[in-house]
Amino acid sequence: MKRSKTSKGWMQEHLNDPWVLKAKAEGMRSRAVYKLLEIDKKDKLLKPGMVVVDLGSAPGSWSQVAAPRVKPSGQLFALDILPMDPLPDVSFLQGDFREASVLAEFEHLLAGRAVDLVLSDMAPNMSGNAVSDDARMMYLAELALDFAQQHLRPGGNMLIKVFQGAGFMEYRTAMLKLFQSVQSRKPDASRDRSAELYLLGVDKK
């Protein structure tokens, strides 16, 4: 199938993206790694001994950063609908987070552990229809928030990717009911034109 000018332009931009080139040079799995690194540098989210959950983990760049930082006694559990190459000290489950059976299997992996930090870089496959994409993104975000409510220990934190579209303010309000504060983060590695924003829920009630 012939590529459109739009997809050719995106591919060209992607290949010339300084964050993509940096990731390749430094052996990182994707440019997304620098989003988490910047936020962690500011907010000191990752600490030794923590139990961390990474939702929407493939190709594994956030797990790649987080797993070494929670050693020696910490644990990292990752989940994605896509396959992910193994990483040291990461327990990975491939499956659709929207399915109850997958969630149950992931909870079985956790084996009752209280979670210190939930990371979610999940996003739906983009259709180009803003209304549809926003709705599907918010659904994933709501599922992640429900997971945090069930499994985060009191005082735990959550970092989640959302879109600044329909439902954004309502979602932020919902986070405020669960956390003492909610802060916005737009890391340098996030493309300027992208509607994505990261919300940091601090100190679960």
UniProtKB/TrEMBL annotation:
Write out the GO biological process terms. methylation
Task: Give the domain of life.
Answer: Bacteria
Q: Where does S-adenosyl-L-methionine bind?
A: G60, W62, D80, D96, D121
Q: Which GO terms describe its molecular function?
A: methyltransferase activity
**Membrane-traversing stretches:** none
Give EC number(s), comma-separated: 2.1.1.166
Database matches in Pfam families: FtsJ
Cellular compartments annotated: Cytoplasm
Keyword entries, A-Z: Cytoplasm, Methyltransferase, rRNA processing, S-adenosyl-L-methionine, Transferase
Q: Which residues form the active site?
A: K161
Which InterPro entries would you find in this protein's record?
A: RNA_methyltr_RlmE, RNA_MeTrfase_FtsJ_dom, rRNA-MeTfrase_E, SAM-dependent_MTases_sf
What reaction does this enzyme carry out catalytically? uridine(2552) in 23S rRNA + S-adenosyl-L-methionine = 2'-O-methyluridine(2552) in 23S rRNA + S-adenosyl-L-homocysteine + H(+)
Q: Domain Ribosomal RNA methyltransferase FtsJ: where?
A: 29-203
Name the job this protein performs: Specifically methylates the uridine in position 2552 of 23S rRNA at the 2'-O position of the ribose in the fully assembled 50S ribosomal subunit.
The family assignment reads: Belongs to the class I-like SAM-binding methyltransferase superfamily. RNA methyltransferase RlmE family.
Q: What is this protein called?
A: Ribosomal RNA large subunit methyltransferase E
Q: Which organism is it from?
A: Uliginosibacterium flavum
The gene coding this protein: rlmE
